[in-house]
Amino acid sequence: MDIPALCRNSRLFLGIAPEDVSAMLQCLSAKEKAYKKGSFLFHAGEEQVLMGLLLSGRVHIIQEDFWGGRTILAEVVMGQVFGEAYACAKQPLEVSVEAVEDCSVLFLDVGKVLHVCTSACAFHTRLVQNLLTLLAEKNLLLTKKVEHMAKRTTREKLLSFLSSQAMRAESSVFTIPFNRQQLADYLAVERSAMSAELSKLRKDGWLDYQKNTFRLLKWEKEPLF
């Protein structure tokens, strides 16, 4: 696996010359680790000084309650980072990170990201700027999730989420990153009730769908499938 090449595709390294990436990875004590589907990369309660950069696969950021109920807070895909907020704040994790596919992760020491190394890398300031941008964007995404969760009914939560996905895709037809159970976990609703509501929304002419591909029917009245 060409790790420097994969890193260059991440926005964490945006604006940094390709020839500088390999040197930077050494500076940040970068270490790669592989995980199987269903395994946990981080557990709630742990203290972490590392942030992860996903090189392949997908992971979910989840929160579990005392009785084992879970909520999916976010999905992380190739090129994205996770765990950076807790590592920067030096706070125990309140979430866990689970692999939903076999994946490969590059772990970086956040302390070495935030503090200029002894060699005073010219690209270090840009790296910190990129990290701050990613943190701000994640905060906005979590705010959007709160908007979905604040809706009173399962139908309203579904329509809020699907509307945001359509606008993000700039199309009435789009594919969401969750299966039915994962979508229920993300919206914190009961799966069977959510599935029943989706069927009602289709019957009422709000949308059409097949598996995790949806079409919102604001103007179109032709079935998608």
Q: What is this entry, summarized?
A:
With 225 residues, the protein is of the alpha+beta class.
Structure commentary:
With 225 residues, the protein is an alpha+beta fold. 40% of the residues lie in helices and 24% in strands. A four-stranded antiparallel β-sheet has the order 1-8-3-6. A four-stranded antiparallel β-sheet has the order 2-7-4-5. Helix 5 packs antiparallel against helix 6. The longest helix has 26 residues, at 124-149. The mean pLDDT is 87.
Structural key phrases:
11 strands; 225 residues; four-stranded antiparallel β-sheet; elongated; 40% helix; alpha+beta
Oligomer: single chain
Sequence of strands across the biggest β-sheet: 1-8-3-6
Helix percentage range: 40-55%
The low-confidence runs, each spanning 5 or more residues with pLDDT under 50, are none
- Based on DSSP secondary structure assignment, what is the total number of beta strands? 11
Protein structure class: alpha+beta
- Output the number of helix runs: 8
Question: What shape does the CA trace take?
Answer: elongated
| Biggest sheet record | 4 strands, antiparallel
On the 0 to 100 scale, the average pLDDT is 87
The percentage of residues in β strands lies in 15-25%
Radius of gyration, in angstroms, nearest whole number: 20 Å
How far the N terminus sits from the C terminus, by CA atoms, comes to: 39 Å
Sketch the topology as an H/E string, one letter per element: HHEEEEEEHEEHHHEHHEE
